[in-house]
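Example 3.2
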Amino acid sequence: MFSKWSDPMTFGKTSFVVFILTSALSVTSLPADIEKGRRKVVHVLEDDTGAVIVQTAPGKVMTHRGGSITLPCRFHHEPEDTDPARIRIKWTKVTDALQFEDVFVALGRQQRVFGGYRGRVFLEQAGPGDASVIIQNVTLEDYGRYECEVTDDMEDDTGFVNLDLEGVVFPYYPREGRYKLNYHQAEDACKQQDAILASHSQLHKAWLEGLDWCNAGWLEDGSVQYPISHPRDQCGRKDTPAGVRNYGYRHKEDERYDAFCFTSKLNGKVYFLKRFKKVNYGEAMKACIRDDSVVAKVGQLYAAWKFQLLDRCEAGWLEDGSIRYPIVNPRSRCGGSQPGVRHLGFPDKKFRLYGVYCFRKTKDERAGAETTKSPKDSLTRRKSSNSIPMNVTRVI
């Protein structure tokens, strides 16, 4: 928890401030009855000089993929009778490389939403001084830092809020082997597995939850890191402390490493397809299709392990040609004493030695109905998170 203080920008006899009003909410939506009791009180004080000082609550909100979330931002203007039609509200996403992506802009009653945010971002309109926006059907790419800027003619001020996602980090390397991916290939590899490159904060959180991996991988900011929970000589010396080891920022074209990917809650379900016979890769694909589904991706299996609590002591094909299986409740005959997703490598696709994990999407009718609702209609009840602590990912 922290407090952020910002002085108003003052021009002549008026002062103008923007403040972020947030609390760390693990919610899929913000119904009015819940939100009323959870937002923190913001005190606007006046000192001897007449300047306004604003105290803000922590700038972080949390949801998961497919959820809805409010990015809170409020502003106070002196004098208070300023024409609302002159107020411009602009939301921008800020990347680690200090690049800016336009999200939303409103001037009076005129509004515009940009790019992939179209049809998903709306003003909350909770009353005077409210510049908050609602993001519906949150995607993995929505994760990150957002800037709220409010402008009145020559006066403006900004505030920031971080949108975090509940999810899981997993290491990834392709069939070709370890340390074969430059940055752009790592980025593509994660996307192909229903994930994105993880951020440093996501990897650090996974390490705190037990992730231990002795191979360096790309992160979304272009750095190369790896988490060590149990120091050992083959992973940077046994006498060094546990932590996230950092190689720094590397050449994105020339240097090759593995990848650390991040994914969140599924808009569907992963399951092990019960069959009397083992199948090769081609037969596995056809079997899932006949069952009105597709072969699951690696990120989907990790999400199912994390959020569905999928526990199956049977090895199965995944879309990338790897063989894996998820263990929530460890037992000796299922690969060791720690929960995690076991990885048996990339066998010959002709082998008939395994089953298959399939993925079935949530029905289109339900998804379509949810995405076409208004911001108020789409807000749903808060649900508790059925997740398990992140733990060691093992290779057997």
